[in-house]
Amino acid sequence: MAVHLPLPKQLRDLLGDLLDREVTLTPAGPYAPGPTTPASVAVYVDDSLRVSAAIVCDLALSSYAGAALGLVPPGGAEAAIEEGALNDTFRENLYEVLNIAASVFNTAGADHLRLYELHPAGPPLPPQIRLHALTLGRREDLAVDVAGYGSGLLSVVLV
Questions:
Q1: Which residues touch 75 (CB under 8 Å, ≥6 apart)?
Q2: Based on C-alpha coordinates, what's the Rg of the chain?
Q3: pLDDT category, 64, cuts 50, 70, 90?
Q4: Percent of the chain, pLDDT > 90?
Q5: What sign does the dihedral 104-106-111-116 (CA atoms) show?
Q6: Residues in contact with 41: Cβ distance below 8 Å, sequence separation at least 6, in sequence order
Q7: At what angle do helices 74-83 and 88-100 cross, to 10 degrees?
């Protein structure tokens, strides 16, 4: 079996439904998190705990998604972006979004994936997790605009 690379429409529909807002996706260049570009990385594993995929969100999208899910005003997300890290509430909300996002991988005939761990934006990423985020090949890189909040970057990477 193989891992399903979700289509942008699947991601838009999922995020729009979860955040209960209009979400617009446009193609973007590959996002490369680094020491000066904090990112949240969700790691997905198959049934044998083999790392199979990652979803990478820049700090802006991590904050906007965490705020929108919790109905926190946009100023709260802006404050997290200025601080360079997610607060506990935004981390928990983003975890919920990315846990439910595992469903976009789970189509008929594809490996079943589940969220294994989330490395939230702020602290430096472990080297192996950062390498997953930088993997070229089967990936989808998108700019995501969350209505009423703002825009950020999202990458879905098959490892």
A1: none
A2: 14
A3: very high
A4: 89
A5: positive
A6: 33, 54, 55, 56, 118, 119, 125, 129, 130, 132, 133
A7: 100
Region 60-83: what's the mean pLDDT? Answer: 96
Residue 1 has pLDDT above 70, yes or no: no
SS (H, E, C) the chain: CECCCCCHHHHHHHHHHHHCCCEEEEECCCCCCECCECEEEEEEECCCCCEEEEEEEEHHHHHHHHHHHCCCCHHHHHHHHHHCCCCHHHHHHHHHHHHHHHHHCCCCCECCCEEEEEECCCCCCCHHHHHHHHCCCCEEEEEEEECCCEEEEEEEEEC
